[in-house]
Amino acid sequence: MAKVHPTAIIEDGVLLGEGTSIWDNVHIRHGASLGDECIVGEKSYIAYDVRIGNRVKINAMVYICAAVTIEDGVMISASTTFTNDRFPRATFPDLKSLRPSEPDEHTLPTLVREGATIGAGCIIGNDLEIGRWAMVGMGSVVTKSVPDFHLVLGSPARSVGAVCKCGKLFHKFADGEDGSFACECGLEYSITHSAVSESNLTTKNTETAEEALIAVP
Q1: Are 34 and 56 in contact, with CB atoms under 8 Å apart?
Q2: CATH code that applies to domain 3-163
Q3: What is the C-alpha to C-alpha distance for residues 75 and 49, in angstroms, rounded to an integer?
């Protein structure tokens, strides 16, 4: 069963997974869905039809607009803002009527892939993807897609290195873009023309560890 603070506003048609916690003054709009064991921090807003996976951590005062999809295991730190319109206007050209707030043909999607982390105070653009286990440094402005395992920083955000699944920076691109590398935690990766991938050994070790956990009575 989900836990919902009495001050939270959960509109009709919202799906909350088992063990998900919704804290004070959160507002979740109709049609949104959150998976199991998620945490949504105080004063955060989740818009219409947003899709959020399992074990996602959303800190305080996060704004997640329509057309955003967040996969499993993502961390979104405090005061992050998503966007979905590159050329927004409040009204039509005659200034006599407001544009509708519901998604339309101008609403552009954003996908945050599994395991990614978005630091505090970031602004995330639209029509882009943040890759698997990527990390966006605090205060960054993301204007283009972020590859898997990349650490991006700045405004606009630029790739500066590669991060491990454990969250540590294991290689700086200033030191070269190709090679085989190991994080101090023991996981191994290969980099070819700045594309980062897990080595076969890393994948095998991860699968073996997961199997061992499952086998414990």
Answers
A1: yes
A2: 2.160.10.10
A3: 20
> From CA 66, how far away is CA 71, in angstroms rounded?
15
Per DSSP, 205 falls in state H
Backbone angles phi, psi at 7, to 5 degrees: -90, -5
Domain map of the chain by residue range? 3-163, 171-217
CA distance 33 to 36: 10
Spatial distance between the Cα atoms of 151 and 194, rounded to a whole number of angstroms:
11
Reply yes or no: is the peptide bond before residue 156 cis, omega within 30 of 0.
yes
Cα–Cα dist 148/114, whole Å: 10
Reported as a single tens digit per residue, the pLDDT across 166-203 is 999 999 999 987 999 999 999 999 999 999 999 975 55
Q: Which two tokens stand for residue 172?
A: 């700086």
Read off the DSSP letter of residue 99: P
CB 139 within 8 A of CB 155: yes
- In the chain, the amino acid numbered 26 is V
- Report, as an integer, the average pLDDT of 85-94: 93
DSSP state of 131: P
Cα separation, 90 vs 184, whole angstroms: 50
